[in-house]
Design brief:
- There is one protein chain.
- By secondary structure, the protein is an alpha+beta fold.
- The protein has 21 helices and 36 strands.
- The chain has a five-stranded mixed beta barrel with strand order 4-5-6-8-7.
- Helix 7 packs antiparallel against helix 21, helix 14 crosses helix 15 and helix 16 runs antiparallel to helix 19.
């Protein structure tokens, strides 16, 4: 069978570790459709950085090029013209891995025609003793995007578009005759006009300041800007809904389902057949409920908590069986994999699956039969997992509950307790169990930041009326605890069975980031307590960036070579600062010091949760990795049923607890399972080099994990970008007004202030101060006036004026009015 690993092994065996397409066809003995598949595999390997396209039709192993100081990676451009290339992990040989520290700096003259986000081939020109590297881009391997969204402008010599994302390019030239899209595609939405419809509504000159989507026809060169043609006229920036359309195109979110995907979704039979019902566990008579937000439409989890005769709790978590309807290789599956995740904006969503599935057939709507994958757990009074069962089931949700109503019931609201009289006792058991599970996680060192998030409220006309902090009540927390428990249970089961799967992993923090946090925390009198360790000298990327072109040497820091740090260190500090004025600042900085969680086929544990095994199982309607985990689990359960093993017995699968505060291991009740899980940072003693079973090949799991992590980051950036856009629009009418604020970040170019009342953040640029010459002090993260000694530091309260809002990027700028008295920092 043709696979990535087969192709890579064949090329690695060649004398110079490269081969042509025709050579591979011949040596692999491929015929017919297999040749097309080879093309697809080669293109994918080039995109993923495992192969380099050396020339037309020839491909080489990326590490082989590293011997010539050629490295493939992704380019990240700065608006000032320079860039950094993050090397692909597979592009570095052992020599470069040992020598390089961080990304490769690319000066402006050596960027060439590459654009932001492109995968490029870099020739490293020099590597400093501290690991800093500098290079020049030899060529572009893969263009990240062919389209750019921006604002159209007329000029005397040519028309041009200024990209919304100014890292992409300074401008894109639009030649005469390329201003209006060729094809018309009428749209009902007033804020979105496409094709000839735009020309019919307005004259050619009316495109000035209109947001358009541009397809690049000629890439930039050293002497010429990029050229393109308008493919879509979106509308004016302030028109209703245009901000969402901009973010969709800025981050290149797939947002229109192809006809074959819609047809496949509409062809699915919603009625559950009798044979399907007979082979599943029937939970329809139980008072199972969904608990979600007021505006939620896709319900993919339902829960029930009962108390057993022995005093333990039985927690049932039922998850929509999306894998029953979305089969491997189908049009629905291909589109879901392409999207990776649903994207949620304040006033609309871009779903991973068509609405026929996400809000109907798969959604666990009340009083309707729905197929589920179920995780039933027995949990004792200490939160230890005594036993569990995983099965395919069918439920009929008794009620669609909201967080607000469940919280009100638990707080004693008389009217709601009467309305949900039959469910109230169950909610109380849920609360009690959630408290137990929270205490269990805290004992093992799990970190809880509980940072507030902004919430935009709209009036009946869809216009923003306020921005406030999100409120989390006990109902939010109990669902969160139950989902964490189910995710961990499924992950541990699959690993104990040694089944290849996708895990949600979170490595321990990078030493540089921890050093940076410790420096700031020390100014507040706090520390994580990492202690003194052997050090190495490094330079931060921000310092290298600012020193470029100045003739100055970047500041060197001494940090630990190896970092002994545990989740409990973070947990203790979060508890210590709880309720203090500096809690908001330090919690945010602690979060930034951690790595991003990601998906991987290699389980390395989850640092923040202090969990040795963790996966995403509970949201298959909106996350593709969850769908993959469901497929793997269903494969295991169906194989087990076919082999005659008893899947209905609650005692069929028993697992010991895994309290991280204990060093000893207890023997499990079932010989089929491995011993108690070891601490997250240690590998299990029973781990084998290769899993015993691969329902999905490891190569494919790796690709899915990589792309899903990338799509998740893309969705997060789009959601965050729109929220900032909405905030800027909300503040547009408040220019000139003044507010109380808190300094949340200090940089060499100014400091960021968060408004106390509105949860809106803006920059006070250093360049706007005229009363003194202010200097940024890196060691204390302070800005100090040289004559007045006036100081600005994180945690300081002050009064600011809304000064201006950038018309393109929607960045908010403040001006300082007066300082508020601040609490002196305590030393510990």
């Amino acid at each position: 069978m043709l696979s990535d690993s087969v192709i890579l092994k064949k090329i690695e065996r060649q004398p110079h570790q490269n081969a042509t397409y025709k050579q591979l066809v011949r040596e692999l003995g491929l015929h017919g459709d297999e040749r097309r598949q080879l093309r697809e595999h080669l293109d994918g390997l080039v995109r993923n950085g495992k192969l380099l396209a050396i020339d037309s039709g020839r491909f080489g192993i990326a590490k082989a090029a590293a011997g010539k100081n050629l490295v493939a990676g992704q380019l990240s451009l700065h608006r000032d013209g320079f860039g950094f290339v993050a090397p692909d992990p597979d592009a570095l040989d052992h020599r470069l891995k040992a020598q390089l520290s961080g990304d490769i700096f690319i000066p402006p003259p050596f960027i060439g025609p590459a654009m932001h986000g492109d995968r490029v081939l870099v020739e490293i020109s020099r590597i400093a003793p501290d690991g800093r590297a500098e290079g020049r881009i030899q060529r572009t391997i893969h263009r990240a995007n062919r389209t750019v969204v921006g604002i159209f402008h007329h000029a005397r010599n040519h028309n041009y578009v200024v990209p919304i994302d100014q890292k992409v390019a300074s401008e894109i030239i639009i030649p005469r005759g390329m201003e209006v899209p060729e094809q018309a595609e009428p749209k009902k939405a007033k804020h979105r006009v496409i094709g000839r419809e735009a020309a019919s509504r307005a004259g050619w000159n009316d495109l000035e300041n209109v947001v358009v989507d541009v397809e690049i026809t000629d890439w930039p060169t050293a002497t010429q800007s990029a050229r393109g043609r308008v493919i879509e006229v979106i509308g004016y920036q302030d028109d209703f809904g245009v901000d969402v359309e901009i973010m969709i195109r800025k981050f290149h979110l797939p947002h229109q389902f192809p006809p074959e995907v819609i047809a496949e979704a509409q062809a699915i039979e919603p009625v559950i057949t009798k044979p399907e019902l007979r082979r599943r566990r029937d939970f329809r008579s139980l008072p199972i409920v969904t608990i979600d937000g007021e505006t939620a439409r896709d319900f993919d989890d339902a829960v029930l908590v009962t108390q057993l005769e022995n005093g333990n709790y039985e927690l049932q978590v039922h998850i929509a069986d999306v894998a029953h309807y979305v089969t491997p290789g189908s049009a629905l599956d291909r589109e879901a994999r392409l999207r990776g995740t649903s994207v949620y904006f304040p006033d609309r969503a871009v779903p991973m699956l068509p609405l026929e599935l996400s809000t109907d057939i798969c959604s666990l709507r009340p009083k309707e039969d729905r197929l589920v994958l179920s995780c039933l757990m027995e949990i004792d009074h200490r939160g230890e997992l005594i036993g569990y069962e995983l099965s395919e089931g069918v439920i009929r949700s008794a009620e669609r509950m909201t967080y607000t109503d469940v919280n009100a019931v638990l707080e004693g609201n008389v009217g709601l307790r009467q309305r949900y009289e039959s469910l109230a006792a169950g909610f109380e058991r849920m609360r009690d169990l959630a408290v137990i599970l929270t205490q269990k996680r805290q004992r093992r060192g799990s970190i809880d930041f509980d940072l507030p998030e902004p919430v935009i409220e709209f009036d009946e006309f869809g216009l923003m009326k306020s921005i406030s902090r999100s409120e989390r009540n006990i109902a939010h927390r109990l669902i969160e605890e139950f989902m964490l428990a189910a995710n961990e249970c499924v992950a541990q089961d699959l690993e104990n069975r040694r089944i290849a799967s996708i895990y949600r992993v979170h490595e321990k923090p990078d030493a540089k980031r921890v050093y940076d946090f410790e420096t700031i925390a020390a100014t507040f009198g706090y520390s994580l307590g990492v202690g003194a360790l052997p050090i190495q000298r490094i330079q931060m990327k921000s310092d290298r960036r600012s020193s470029y072109g100045t003739g100055k040497r970047a500041r060197e820091l001494e940090i630990p070579k190896e970092l002994h740090i545990t989740p409990r260190m973070y947990q203790k500090l979060t508890q210590k600062i709880a309720g203090k004025p500096e809690e908001r600042i330090l919690s945010y900085l602690m979060l930034r010091s951690l790595r991003q969680a990601r998906y991987s086929e290699d389980n390395v544990g989850h640092f923040a949760l202090a969990a040795p095994s963790y996966t995403h199982f509970t949201s298959p309607i909106r996350r593709y990795p969850d769908l993959i985990v469901h497929r793997i689990l269903k494969n295991v359960l169906q194989d087990q049923a076919a082999s005659g093993h008893d899947t209905d017995s609650f005692e069929a699968r028993i697992v010991s607890g895994h309290d991280f505060s204990r060093a000893e291991k207890r023997r499990p009740k079932s010989p089929a399972l491995a011993p108690e899980a070891s601490p997250w940072s240690k590998r299990r003693e029973h781990a084998a080099p290769e899993p015993l079973s691969e329902p999905i090949p490891l190569d494919e799991l790796h690709d899915i994990a990589e792309s899903s992590s990338q799509f998740e980051r893309r969705a997060d950036e789009a959601e965050r970008g729109l929220m900032e856009w909405k905030k800027a629009k909300f503040m547009q009418d408040r220019i000139g007004e003044d507010f109380d604020g808190l300094i949340v970040s200090v940089t060499k170019f100014g400091f960021f202030v968060e408004l106390t009342e509105l949860f809106v953040e803006g920059l006070v640029p250093l360049a706007t101060f005229i009363d003194d010459r202010y200097v940024y002090h890196e060691n204390t993260r302070e800005i100090i006036g040289q004559r007045s000694r006036r100081t600005y530091r994180m945690g300081q309260r002050l009064r600011v004026l809304v000064d201006r809002i950038d018309p393109v990027e929607k960045k908010i700028q403040f001006a300082v009015l007066e300082e508020k008295p601040t609490r002196s920092r305590r030393r510990r």
